[in-house]
Each structure stands twice: as C-alpha cells, then as structure tokens.
From TrEMBL, chain A:
Taxonomic superkingdom: Bacteria
PANTHER family for the chain: NITRITE REDUCTASE (NADH) LARGE SUBUNIT
Pathway annotation: Nitrogen metabolism; nitrate reduction (assimilation)
The BFD-like [2Fe-2S]-binding domain, residue ranges: 420-467, 482-531
Binding site for siroheme: C683
Name of the featured protein: NAD(P)/FAD-dependent oxidoreductase
Heme found in the keyword field: yes
GO molecular function terms noted in the UniProt entry: 2 iron, 2 sulfur cluster binding; 4 iron, 4 sulfur cluster binding; flavin adenine dinucleotide binding; heme binding; metal ion binding; NADP binding; nitrite reductase activity
Ranges for domain Nitrite/Sulfite reductase ferredoxin-like: 556-620
TrEMBL record, chain B:
The keyword Nucleotidyltransferase is annotated on this UniProt entry: no
Organism whose genome encodes this protein: Aliishimia ponticola
Protein name in UniProt: Nitrite reductase small subunit NirD
Organism superkingdom: Bacteria
CDD domains: Rieske_NirD_small_Bacillus
NCBIfam families, A to Z: nirD_assim_sml (TIGR02378)
Length: 811, 109
C-alpha cells in the first residue's frame, strides 16, 4: 500500500508531538508536509521564559532540528503560509501559489496573543510574549531600561521576572484585584505579589490601561485611566491568547471560540483533524502543555486508524520564577457544598488552602511550601476519599501525630527591632532582654522597660512576648480576640499593622494568621478601617468591607429604603438649598421629611435605585453628602454666636463651619459629632459631644469625650486656647490621635476612658506631635475630603437591578 | 434547565452583590472574594433585610439589618432557625447564567 499524504499546518508543540508519534509507530503510513508561518521548525515554547531569564539558550529549547526533519523525510515549508483549503477537492493552496493534495489534513495553527486595541498599540516597542522575536526584544533590555507588562497572569509575570533579572525596571499592570486570579486565590496572590516586589518589580493592581503614549512612532509610556503615566522603553502585553481559527473558518470547519473537535480530535469536516491551542473540545480551550500532548497522542492514534479518545483532566500550574514557590491545581472556586481547609504560617510566609467537596479533594492552592503539591494533585486526579485523613490532610503525606499551628507565630516572627510600644519607642528586643533578665510579668516589664506603660494598647503584644519567651512559665490572661477569625485583639491587630507595615487586607489575613479566607462582617470593617487610617496612600477604603450604609452612602431603614441627609455646614442653609431639597422630596416621592438633631434635614424613604438621581439633583444646588451614615464626621452643631446673639463672645457659627470643612469626609473608628457654642450658656449643647468647644471672652475651651447616647457623659477639658486657629489645630490633632489609636467602634469617650485623658493631653501638648498629627490627617484628607455622592451619582447603573426577569417572562 | 444570561461577572463587585427582579421577588446574585457566584432570595426571613446589601465573606453573607449570617451554598442561617431559597447559577465566559426554569417553575407552583 502506498503512503497517504498528510499535510500539517503549523509547527508547534502539539503538532510536533503528533509527528513524533507517527514516525515512531508508523513511519511508513504517511508522507508528511509541514507548513509553518514562522521561519523555523518546532521549539519548546514554554521554555522561552528560561531563555529570557538567561538560564537556557534558544538552541537548547529546539525540539526538532533540521536533522530530525531530514531523517524522517518531512517536507518542510517553513516561512510559507497556507492561504486556502478546498475540503471537497482535498487540496491546500500556499502563498507561493502551489496547490497540494492531501488524504488527511491536521490543523495545528495554535493561537494568537490578544492585543488590547488601546490607542498606540501599533507603536514600535509594543510586543506580546509569544515567540522568539518577542523574547529577543525583551533580552535586548538591561540596566537603565524600563518596561511595563500589561497582564499579571502566568506569562506576564514570567516576562516581568525575566526582565527584572536583567536589571530592567519593570512595572506590572494588572486589571484584577490580585495576581494570577485564574490560578490563585487572593491570599496566595498577595504572597506572590510580595515575592515579586522583593525582586524589585512594581505591581499595580486594579489598574486600567487607557492609552499607550508614543514619541516618534516609538512607545514612551503607558497611561492609566487614573492619569498615571508609566514611562517605558518596551511594553509587553500578556493578556491572553485567542485560538487561531481564521483559516479553519474560511475552509468551512465548525468553529466556536476554537476549532470544534470531537474526542478523536476530528473536526466537523471529514479527514481534517486539529490539535493544540487552536481547538475547542467540549466547550474548553487549552493553553497548558499537558492536555496538548494528550491531544497529540489521540490525533496520532486516529491517523493510524486506532481507537483513542481525548479526556479532559484536572490541571496543575507552577510558575517558572525563581523564588516564587506556588502551586495550584483543580478547581478552587465555583460550586456549591464545598468546604475549605486553610493553613497559614506567617513566620515562614506559607499559605495552603484545600477545597473539599463530598469527601474528596477537588482543589489546592499553595504558596511558600509546595513540597506536597504533587501528592495533593494525585488525590485530586484520583478522586481519593479523604474523610479518614481529613483532620491532618493539610499537613501532607509525611504527617504523623499532631502539632497545631502556633497562634503566637505572628509575634514570634517579629524581628528584634520591631517596635512594640509606640508611645515609648520600645522594641521587641528590649522587651525580650528584660524578660530574660527577670521581668517575668506585665508589671515588671512595664516597670523596667516602660513598654505598655502609657496608652496600654500594646499590652496584649507584651503579654504574648512574655508567653513566647517564657513558655509555660507564663500564665496568659484571657484577652478577647476581635472575632472567631483570629486570636488577636483589636489593639494587637492595630499595633501589628503598624509594626509589620501591613498594607492590604491580604497581608493582614496572612501575616496575622487569620483562620478564615477573608474575615467576616465583624473583623473586616475593622481591619479595613485600620488599614486606611494607617496607610492612607497605599491602601484605599474597600466599600465591600463596609456596612451597607457606608457603602451606599445613605442610611438603610427597616423597610429597605434609605434616608438622604445633605450637609448643612454648621447648620446654616439658604432658600436656594431649601428649594432644592423640597423639589427633590417632591420628585422622588419622599414620604417623610424630618429636621434632625444635628441641625439639618433628613429625607426618609428614598428607594435604593433612586439614590444616584436624587444625589445628582441635590449636587446641582451645591449640596453634598452629610455623611449621616458614616463612622466619620457627622455634624458640627453651632449657635449663632456674635453674628446675632447679644451674649455671643466669638463667631461660633464661623468656627463650626471651618471645623466641618476641615473634617468632613474623614473615616474614624466610630461616628464623631462636634458642637461649638458661642458662650457658656451652651445653646449648641457642646458639652455632650465627642469634641465640644465653648467660646469665652478670652478664647476657646476645647473639651472632648462627651456622650449623649447609650451613655450620657459630660466632656472633659482638653485645653484652653486663645485663637480660632489653635482651636481648630487641637481638634484636628485629637481626631487624628483617635483615628490612629482607637479600637474600631469605640466612640472617643470609650477610647479616652481606656487610654486616660492624661495620656491624650501629654501627646497633644507636644507641638511636634501635634503638627505631625495634623499633617497625617491632612494627608489622609487629600484622598477622602470629597463628596461621595457626586462620585456615585456618576455610576448610577450600579444602583439598579442587574436584570429584570419579569420583563423577560412577559416577552 | 433554561439558562438566562443576566449580566457580566464584572458587573458585580468582588465580595459584593447585585439584585435581579423576578416574578418571585428580588433575587440577589453574590460574587465572593474567590470569584464564586451564588444566587439566593434577597429577603432575610428574620425582618426582611436586603441580603444583597450585606457583607460577603467566605461563602457567606451577613444581613445588614441584624447580622444573621447565611451560608450561600445551602441558604441556611447559621445559628438561627431560618433559611433562604437558593437558585442554580453558573458563569460561562464571564457571563452569569441563571436557571430561569427554576424561577418560573417555583412561581407557578
């Protein structure tokens, strides 16, 4: 029997493997003609990253050299494209005009990198990461060059790490909230980011690219949506691949996202097969090499007339970046009835998460220690029943007997120079030395080192140090952790966020040993606040970690409607504002209009979907959010002062307005209410506020820590000052000290009761500290002093239902 | 089953929710931090709180009115006697698909 003619389009890893199977098993079955658009044969594409990193040369990753093709008598048409296929006549036409007949045709056309059609995407120096040319372009960079990589997936990060290893200043721009979101969960993504940043790579998450800026036809910078410009000499887009199906579609093959194939790798047209990244099998596309090799094996069997079927299998991923030890396998998202086992070891930077469904392991994500990865992968693939070893599963195959994770490891992991007591500047090392020298209880540590002898918020940490240092000799007093998600108190978490410079929620979950994936409704709002208060520039408020009122910027009522309270600075309004409020009340059928205790007007009963529109209307009249819903500045209540009152001693209204304008928009541990009275008759009821100012002839009496809610308490005098400016300074400094130190949901009076008014006075009395507090507050306000209503009114869509299926049903 | 495309995954904030109007009342579609999507009744059986406005943590949501916590897999309230209806939902190519047959079948019943 004479040989049949096989034409292969595309010399890639999948088609190359088909050729190997054929020439090994049935060398006499086919005359093979191999077309390839690239002017070379088959090389191991997944090894381009080691080539980029300088660990391998191109020659080392060539799979099939000329000698291979020659010895198997393969007719190579490299650099030639197939331009047309006639499936009826069973011929292909090449770009040289030649027409070749086939008995069997195999598509291995692979995929094209997806290029985001940003303005400037066609500039010189904008590349994908796909072939040898791209790799060489990246290898051409070195010290002093800058590169931007769009895409924080597998390929993008390998490209970034490879260039960074060559001394290039690399920034990765990723649109999602964490790196490699398809393979990793946020916790592992956080650790990966940390490792990459240690390699000097800058990572920008949730960053939308807007435009590629060029100069003289060459890339100069990437501009982000927020206006940031990232200068670069090379821009690499690694945002995904698209199966290359154009030729197949023209030839009349069934094509979806990829070329449709059945279990035998046969396409919809007889005698035409397809393998690799260009195919779509049972709804799935393929990018990793393992399934491509499986397909190649099946395609070769089919070509040889044998029975074989391609089966999709669970896949595992590893990143080829030195020092970033990660592993992910199976399905760790999606699906009902699943349970997690999470293990974190902050001291070693280890995170492991197993996903269990119906007594079987279905997914695993690991970072830092991936030694057991393949064992877990085996359990996933085999569908092993793990109920018996469930308790100890996460510790891996070597596990015998039990050592529980150490809840003290976060403290144990701190370096000796980490500051424990911020008030007195005492480091861990000093305290440990004192303990070793005989200070074996809290009192003794306080007496010898001054640690925890001032505000006392680090008491929990000092106690943990005693326990770590003394072991069983120390009896730990029971402290209340924030919630069931962790073992630390609010005060400990605040202190550790500062000491360890934790700047993201993921960092807190990981480094402080959280037992849940992303906290709960108790700890998440607290941690969100602590992060934004301590790192105003690095961390941004996360609306999804806010209680509904603060996310919706309106107060939810018991029937699910909302209340809307526009700000009236110092309680002052005018006819135009009142008209706008009246018009809005009419237009949105507001059932109740009420004057509040904070000298403003409350519109009650507004529907959630109307919020952005009523805000837009109120904005037009110059009215902004009154933050009547927030853990932040609510109102500054005033009396009319010297403007009208015959008893007024100072301009209390004017001071109230200035204070409100300085403080509005800021987030605080709990709500903050102020009042300024123009004389000791105190018509503004300033002496039961968080900060109350009483004007007197000689100046201003600033008092703090009052209450008129669950508890009623008179304020305590903080300071008497002569000028309005000083009164504002002291107030701002007090609010910032409260922001930096209080436990979430402690009103100032509760916080002051814990730390003592003397401690507060001592801090604020120091002009340098006062200036620092004011500066820190201003820095935070540079971000938060703005109207959230105006911002949200522009995104009205987000307030509407996602879909209306009632309409759908009516159709 | 008849899957209806109700919107893009990105339309729901991570660890957030959006609502859909149906003949059965509002259905909340949740997106967890790990990227899973769940659909359930938007109404808390306790005092009718809108669950779509709650804090989403792990595979649970906390009602914004009185902090009842619901497991989104089963709809069961944790430590309380009550539950919410859950609905089949899946994500394909970044689009969220809801089983409309389920919704109309239950409303007809």
């Amino acid at each position: 029997m004479s040989k049949q003619r096989l034409i292969i389009i595309g010399a890639g890893m999948a088609s190359g493997r088909v050729i190997e199977h054929l020439v090994e098993t049935a060398p006499d079955a086919y005359d093979i003609t191999l077309f390839n658009a690239e002017p070379r044969g088959n090389y191991n594409r997944i090894m381009l990253s080691p080539v980029l990193a300088g660990d391998k040369t191109y020659e080392e990753i060539v799979t099939h050299d000329d000698a291979f093709y020659c010895s198997h008598k393969i007719d190579c048409r490299f650099g030639q494209k197939v331009t047309a296929i006639d499936t009826a006549a069973k011929t292909v036409t090449s770009d040289t005009g030649e027409v070749l007949a086939y008995d069997k045709l195999l598509f291995g056309t692979g995929s094209n990198p997806f290029i985001i059609p940003l303005p400037g995407h066609d500039l010189e120096g904008v590349i994908a990461y796909r072939d040898l040319e791209d790799t060489q372009a990246m290898m051409g960079l070195g010290q002093g060059n800058r590169a931007v990589v769009i895409g924080g997936g597998l390929l993008g990060l390998e490209a970034a790490a490879g260039m960074a290893a060559r001394g290039v200043d690399v920034t990765v721009v990723h649109i999602m909230g964490h790196l490699m979101e398809r393979q990793l969960d946020p916790a592992a993504g956080y650790l990966l980011r940390k490792s990459l940043e240690e390699k000097g790579i800058t990572i920008r998450l949730e960053a939308n690219s807007k435009e590629i800026v060029g100069k003289d036809g060459k890339v100069r910078a990437l501009m982000l949506e927020d206006g940031t410009e990232l200068p670069c000499d090379l821009l690499v887009m690694a945002v995904g691949i698209r199966p290359n199906t154009a030729l197949a579609a023209e030839a009349g093959l069934a094509v979806g996202r990829g070329i449709h194939v059945d279990d035998q790798m046969l396409t919809s047209v007889s005698d035409v097969l397809a393998v690799g990244e260009c195919v779509e099998h049972d709804g799935a596309l393929f990018g990793l090499v393992a399934p491509l090799y499986d397909q190649a094996k099946v395609a070769a069997q089919t070509l040889m007339g044998n029975e074989a079927a391609f089966v999709q299998k669970t896949l595992s991923t590893k990143l080829k970046v030195t020092g970033c030890d990660l592993f992910s396998a199976g399905d760790f998202a999606e699906g009902e009835g699943r349970e997690d086992i999470v293990f974190r070891d902050p001291a070693r930077g280890v995170y492991k998460r197993l996903v269990i469904e119906a007594g079987k392991l279905v997914g695993a994500v690991m970072y830092g220690d991936t030694a057991d990865g393949n064992w877990f992968f085996g359990l996933i693939k085999d569908g092993t029943d793990i109920e018996e070893m469930r308790e100890t599963l996460i510790f891996g195959p070597a596990y015998q007997g039990g050592v529980a994770a150490d809840p003290l490891s976060a403290v144990a992991a701190l370096p000796p120079e980490a500051e424990i007591c911020g008030c007195n500047g005492i480091c861990k090392g000093t305290i440990v030395d004192a303990i070793n020298a005989g200070a074996t209880d809290l009192g003794a540590v306080k007496a010898t080192t001054k640690a925890s002898a001032s505000c006392g918020t680090c008491t929990g940490l000092v106690e943990q140090l005693l326990q770590v240092t003394l072991g069983d000799d120390f009896q730990m007093p029971t402290a209340q952790p924030i919630c069931g998600c962790c073992d630390l108190t609010h005060e400990d978490v605040r202190r550790l966020i500062k000491a360890q410079e934790l700047k993201s929620q993921e960092a807190v979950w990981q480094e402080l040993g959280w037992k849940t994936l992303n906290g709960c409704h108790v700890c998440r709002p607290a941690v969100n606040f602590y992060l934004l208060a301590d790192w105003p520039l690095e961390y941004r408020d996360d609306p999804q970690s806010r209680f509904v009122n603060e996310r919706k910027h309106a107060n939810i009522q018991k029937d699910g409607t909302f209340s809307v309270v526009p700000r009236m600075w110092g309680g002052i309004t005018n006819p135009a504002e009142l008209r706008a409020i009246a018009d809005a009340a009419d237009k949105y059928n507001v059932p109740t209009v009420k004057v509040t205790g904070g000298q403003r007007i409350d519109l009650l009963g507004v529907k959630g979907e109307d919020l952005p529109y009523i805000w837009a209307d109120l904005n037009k009249a110059g009215l902004v959010s009154g933050h009547a819903y927030s853990k932040g500045l609510r109102t500054v209540k005033t009396c009319v002062g010297t403007d009208h009152c015959r008893f007024g001693t100072q301009d209390s209204t004017g001071l109230g307005i200035k204070l409100e304008q300085a403080l509005w928009g800021s987030w605080t541990p709990h709500k903050v209410k102020l009042a300024v009275s123009g004389c000791p008759r105190n018509c503004a009821e300033a002496t039961c506020k968080d900060v109350g100012i009483i004007c007197v002839d000689s100046g201003y009496q600033v008092s703090v820590a009052g209450a008129a809610g669950m508890d009623v308490k008179e304020t305590e005098r903080l300071v008497d000052v002569a000028s309005e400016a000083e009164a504002i300074d002291w107030t701002v400094a007090f609010v910032q000290l409260y922001r930096e130190n209080a436990k979430y949901l402690d009103r100032p009076y509760k916080w002051v009761a814990k730390v003592g008014l003397d401690w507060v006075k001592e801090r604020l009395d120091d002009p340098a500290e006062r200036a620092r507090l004011i500066e820190a507050f201003e820095l935070s306000q540079s971000i938060y002093r703005k109207d959230p209503w105006a911002e949200h009114a522009a995104k009205a869509d987000a307030f509407q239902p996602l879909a209306d299926l009632k309409l759908e049903a009516a159709k | 089953m008849s899957w209806i495309d109700i919107g893009a995954l990105e339309d729901i904030p991570l660890r957030g929710a959006r609502t859909i109007k149906t003949a059965l009342g509002c259905v909340a579609v949740f997106r967890t931090g790990a990227g899973e999507v769940f659909a359930a009744s938007d109404r808390c059986p306790h005092k009718g709180g809108p669950l779509s406005e709650g804090i989403v943590h792990g595979q649970s949501v906390t009602c914004p009115l009185h902090n009842w916590v619901f497991d989104l897999n089963t709809g069961a309230a944790k430590g309380e006697d009550g539950s919410i209806a859950t609905f089949p939902v899946r994500v394909e190519s970044g689009r969220i698909l809801l089983d409309a047959a389920e919704l109309t079948a239950r409303s007809a019943a």
